[in-house]
Amino acid sequence: YANIKGLALDKTYYVRAYAKNESGTVYSAKTVSFSTAPTKPSVTMRAVTNVDRTKLSALLQGNIDSPGVPNYTEKGFVYSATNSTPSLNDSFIKVEGTSSGSYEITLSGLSLGNTYYVRAYAINAGGTVYSSDVLKFDLKGTTPIVSVSETDNVNLSELTATLHGSVDEVGFPAITEKGFVYSDANKVPTTSDKIISVTGTTAGSYYANIKGLALDKTYYVRA
To answer: Cα–Cα distance between 130 and 44 in angstroms, integer?
Structure first.
């Protein structure tokens, strides 16, 4: 037998035995072959946990089921907010180590309001493989909920009134402004009409006194 070195990856080699004497060289009638084609690793996307909308982060968990031959040299996760089958052409994060088994990393620097798609990946000389499963998670915010109550203390002499509203849910991120919009022309007033702001960013009821109203008008108010 003989041990040979210096082979190249991803090749098929053909072999015959030979022998020489004074009469010449002879070869075996049979030719055998062998391949040095690499075996790609196998990787699984396990879970996405600890999604934190405040820190804008999430914990990604994967698993190297088989390291491949030769052993893989890189692993991690690929992710995207726009591509539902992310690859290394999108964003990615590497994880240290080249052993089999589970691995994880906290992904940060994300953006509020997005849905992210994630796959695990690994690379060896045979190429790049991705997990068959794509997981997704949301970092979407929630809008606040407000309501308006009946206006009272309408004073025709001073042309003032008291408006009443409530922040029923502050949403996420929490509200930064609240108040009332009103109009004597638009029955569904918006911030393009007149605005009166009220201080505070907590949930619960609030009110505002408005001045400078006009006689003989009907006003429409929304929180």
So the answer is: 8
For residue 70, cis peptide bond before it (omega within 30 degrees of 0) = yes
Dihedral of the alpha carbons of 171, 175, 179, 182, in degrees to the nearest 10: -60
CB-CB neighbours of 159 under 10 Å: 14
pTM of the complete model: 0.68
Among the listed residues 172, 164, 165, the one whose alpha carbon sits nearest the alpha carbon of residue 146: 165
Tell me the C-alpha to C-alpha distance, in Å, between residue 57 and each of 40, 157, 217. 31, 57, 52
pLDDT tens digit sequence for 150-193 = 999 999 999 999 999 999 999 888 899 999 999 999 999 999 99
Q: Measured between alpha carbons, how far is residue 194 from residues 2, 59, 125, 176, 222 in Å?
A: 92, 46, 66, 19, 11
Terminal CA-to-CA distance of the chain, rounded, Å? 89
- pLDDT tens for 188-215 read 999 999 999 999 999 999 999 999 999 9
Tokens of 80: 């995207």
Neighbour tally for 154: CB within 10 Å? 12
Q: How confident is the model at residue 88 (pLDDT cuts 50, 70, 90)?
A: very high
Q: What is the DSSP letter of 172?
A: B
Q: Which distant-in-sequence residues (6+ apart) come within 8 Å of 1 by Cβ? A: none
Distance CA 56, CA 137 (A): 12
Structure tokens of 122? Answer: 């690994």
